[in-house]
């Protein structure tokens, strides 16, 4: 079975115009499916949600599968209402917070995003019984777990995806660290996260790049990549790898992974190609190896 | 009276907590099934059974935390922990993983189930999902909520709520944080540890005390000053300047503070909270005894409608600042 590509929801606060261009370009990409929606902060949604219907239409017309993402941390009444509305849109929903399942119409299929804790086959089977058809595993899982879960997914009719490329979502909080960096609280954030289209870098005290702050979300700084582990994932029975949207030549990044999945690139070439497409970027692949997630990919 | 739920990392701490007035004590087995999987801590099967007997004989109850996420292919280790907690006479088990909860509900229908804070059920929909699906009887609320939000949640759910009032403070949604494994390879969800001691290194350099986690420098204090434990989210970092923002150095996520919500107990009571939880299974029995005594006095005062005793626990925060955390909206 050949793996294919899923494009995850945009984690950053981009302008409506940037979103429009981004999804227009995606429609002509080799990505098999796209997950779209605001999954980090509901305060951002009014600025770009009007772009979603058009983007969905364009992607569907191009033959791309589409799912709508919920928020990763749903607390407010308004956020719960928005979640319920997503299920009414008639398009598959990817849940990023387990509480979203409460709004699932009886018997409706759904997908599960990487911020939902699926660590073992018991949870995978439970979600499958509820109607899950596709699960993107948490980025911190080692390959040994991925193997067991991919096998369980095959038995339960659930496609299993792995975080393939992009800054890994490491934490979500009630507090906005982006606003805090500007000495503001979340309620008076003035949308400062929009100033950093790839998030704000956080370094250790000796100046080493370490984390990325993206509103209420904290991500790795190095870009997680499965470039060196694609064959292992294929052998494990993983059905797709997920590419997380980022600033820069995203079409080139998709193309690099597409070539890798189709076996066009020789082993080793993928990481080199990524380095060329993302000058100055750092790459990490420790999680799948059971090592610190930030372990450099070389 | 609000129920006081107290930590015990050892049989001695359990006895100390019960003797000091804990209504309930929570503890875990000495393995990866619980979220305080530290060397030298926690209970053997025999110790757990003896601990339950000790507590029950004195009118107290024991909860067993089995609140890490079972490893794929090794779920039987967690299943056995649930069965053993049940056999030991635990009042309830505290679980986080849906698969494990489903197993417990099916295999041990008479066992009371509490939803761990590690499940991060932060809204009524998530809580009701667990209650309806598995018959969960109590939820430990994540520390991302304000008192107002807790009040609103209690209006929409039928099960009990338990909230943290004292001790260590997670600033991220618990059970949804991989910062520790990013730096060390070990995480709360998979291994029951956060920023583990085995990955911490202290050094003295050029007049400063430095602390590293996994080799990453996240604390530097002048010699003679306090050298806080380098928990990742309370570390000191810098954010370089951008086109639109100046550089910042400091505790970008949270200061090295601990939680003290004593003053909020009357409001939490009013919010419909059933139980107050004290963090600290890694603490000494002397610490546990003192905190439990203080909080027992506080919940008794709250029950009589009296003001909270002020500054009760200042000593116990070990020179650290205390915060009411997310319970106040301005924290965000």
TrEMBL record, chain B:
Record InterPro entries: Peptidase_U32, RNA/ubiquinone_mod_enzymes, UbiU
Pfam families xrefs: Peptidase_U32
Transmembrane segments: none
Binding site for [4Fe-4S] cluster: 170, 177, 194, 233
Known cofactor(s): [4Fe-4S] cluster
GO molecular-function terms, A-Z: 4 iron, 4 sulfur cluster binding; metal ion binding
Source superkingdom: Bacteria
Keyword 4Fe-4S set for record: yes
Keyword list, A-Z: 4Fe-4S, Iron, Iron-sulfur, Metal-binding, Ubiquinone biosynthesis
GO biological process: ubiquinone biosynthetic process
Pathway where it operates: Cofactor biosynthesis; ubiquinone biosynthesis
Subunit structure: Forms a heterodimer with UbiV.
Task performed by this protein: Required for O(2)-independent ubiquinone (coenzyme Q) biosynthesis. Together with UbiV, is essential for the C6-hydroxylation reaction in the oxygen-independent ubiquinone biosynthesis pathway.
Family: Belongs to the peptidase U32 family. UbiU subfamily.
Protein name, entry field: Ubiquinone biosynthesis protein UbiU
Species for this entry: Paracoccus limosus
């Amino acid at each position: 079975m050949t793996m294919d590509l899923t494009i995850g929801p945009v984690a950053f606060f981009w302008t409506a115009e940037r979103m429009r261009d981004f999804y227009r370009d995606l429609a002509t990409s080799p990505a098999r499916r796209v997950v779209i929606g605001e999954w980090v902060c509901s305060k951002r949604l009014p600025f770009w949600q009007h772009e979603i219907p058009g983007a969905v239409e364009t992607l569907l017309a191009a033959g791309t599968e589409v799912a709508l993402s919920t928020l990763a941390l749903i607390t407010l009444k308004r956020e719960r209402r928005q979640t319920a509305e997503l299920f009414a849109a008639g398009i598959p929903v990817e849940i990023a917070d387990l509480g979203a399942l409460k709004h699932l119409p009886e018997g409706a299929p759904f997908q599960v995003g990487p911020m939902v804790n699926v660590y073992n086959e018991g949870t995978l089977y439970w979600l499958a019984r509820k109607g899950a058809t596709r699960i993107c595993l948490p980025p911190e899982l080692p390959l040994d777990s991925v193997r067991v879960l991919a096998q369980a997914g095959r038995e339960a009719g659930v496609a299993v995806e792995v975080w393939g490329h992009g800054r890994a979502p490491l934490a979500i909080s009630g507090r906005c660290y982006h606003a805090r960096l500007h000495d503001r609280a979340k309620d008076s954030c003035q949308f400062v996260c929009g100033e950093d289209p790839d998030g704000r870098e956080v370094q250790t005290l000796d100046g080493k790049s370490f984390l990325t702050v993206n509103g209420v979300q904290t991500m790795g700084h190095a870009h997680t990549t499965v470039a060196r582990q694609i064959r292992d994932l294929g052998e494990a029975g993983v059905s797709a790898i997920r590419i997380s949207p980022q600033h820069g030549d995203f079409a080139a990044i998709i193309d690099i992974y597409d070539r890798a999945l189709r076996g066009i690139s020789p082993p080793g070439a993928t990481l080199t190609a990524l380095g060329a497409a993302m000058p100055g970027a750092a790459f990490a692949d420790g999680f799948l190896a059971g090592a610190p997630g930030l372990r450099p990919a070389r | 009276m609000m129920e006081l739920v107290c930590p015990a990392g050892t049989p001695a701490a359990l006895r100390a907590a019960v003797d000091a007035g804990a209504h309930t004590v929570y503890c875990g087995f000495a393995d990866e099934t619980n979220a305080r999987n530290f060397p030298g801590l926690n209970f053997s099967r025999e110790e757990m059974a003896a601990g339950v007997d000790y507590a029950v004989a004195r009118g107290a109850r024991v909860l067993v935390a089995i609140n890490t996420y079972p490893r794929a292919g090794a779920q039987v280790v967690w299943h056995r922990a649930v069965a053993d907690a049940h056999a030991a006479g635990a009042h309830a088990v505290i679980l986080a993983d849906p698969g494990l909860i489903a197993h417990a509900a099916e295999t041990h229908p008479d066992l009371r189930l509490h939803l761990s804070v590690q499940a991060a059920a932060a809204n009524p929909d998530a809580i009701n999902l667990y209650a309806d699906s598995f018959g969960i009887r109590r939820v430990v609320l994540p520390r991302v909520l304000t008192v107002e939000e807790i009040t609103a949640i209690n209006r929409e759910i039928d099960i009990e709520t338990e909230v943290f009032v004292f001790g260590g403070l997670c600033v991220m949604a618990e059970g949804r944080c991989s910062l520790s494994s990013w730096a060390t390879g070990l995480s709360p969800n998979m291994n029951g540890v956060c920023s583990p001691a085995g990955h911490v290194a202290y050094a003295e350099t050029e007049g400063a005390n430095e602390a590293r986690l996994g080799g990453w420098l996240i604390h530097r204090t002048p010699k003679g000053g306090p050298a806080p434990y380098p928990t990742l989210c309370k570390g000191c970092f810098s954010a370089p300047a951008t086109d639109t923002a100046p550089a910042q150095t400091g505790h970008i996520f949270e200061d090295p503070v601990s939680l003290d919500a004593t003053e909020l107990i009357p409001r939490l009571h009013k919010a419909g909270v059933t139980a107050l939880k004290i963090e600290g299974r890694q603490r000494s029995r002397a610490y546990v005894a003192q905190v439990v005594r203080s909080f027992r006095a506080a919940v008794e005062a709250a029950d009589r409608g009296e003001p909270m005793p002020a500054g009760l626990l200042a000593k116990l925060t070990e020179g650290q600042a205390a915060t009411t955390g997310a319970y106040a909206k301005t924290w965000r």
